[in-house]
Amino acid sequence: MLNLLRALPLRTRLHLMSASMLVGLIALGAYSVFELRLHMLEEKRLALASVVDTAMGVLEHQHALQTAGKLTQDEAQNQAKDLVRSLRYADGEYFWINDMTPRMIMHPIKPELEGTDLSGIKDPVGKALFVAMVDVVKSGSQGSVDYLWSRPGKDAPV
Maximum distance among all alpha carbons in the chain? Predict the structure, then answer.
């Protein structure tokens, strides 16, 4: 192979070296973009976990009021739903509450879903997203579910 390269004119050898360096740089750039994307997704998951902890604090506070006898269960649950309904983060993102059936308890953007069995709802690629979310909760570990859903004010699911 080395003899073959030596037989090539200097100009061709320089072009080959330049091309191989360019291919290497492109590969390195593609790898860097891939790693950056993974890092950004992980950062987003961590930020979301922090926001969820805040929302859970609201629910735990309402439960503590009920446990202390300051509120009935219905009062605590209704107040918790109202508080969570008003929470927003990251430019209009919101929380909803569903149970383990899964059935929608509270949805601030689509109240028509409240009381609805969610087990048959699928995203555009066919994922039963609410069933998947309940499965994560039932596993007893923390986790996330990637899915497509229409954002407020938008038609196309993202």
Answer: 91
Burial class of residue 94 (count of CB atoms within 10 Å of its CB; 0-12, 13-18, 19+): middle
Classify residue 100 as exposed, middle or buried by CB count within 10 Å of its CB (0-12, 13-18, 19+): exposed
Find out whether 77 and 88 touch, Cβ atoms under 8 Å: no
| H helices present in 68-120, as ranges | 73-86
Alpha helix locations (H) across the chain? 2-7, 10-67, 73-86, 129-138
- For residue 133, the model assigns a pLDDT of 95
Residue 118 CA to residue 120 CA, distance in Å, equals: 6
Three-state DSSP at 101 gives coil
Please say if the pLDDT value at position 1 is more than 70.
Answer: no
- Count the Cβ atoms, other than its own, within 10 Å of residue 26: 10
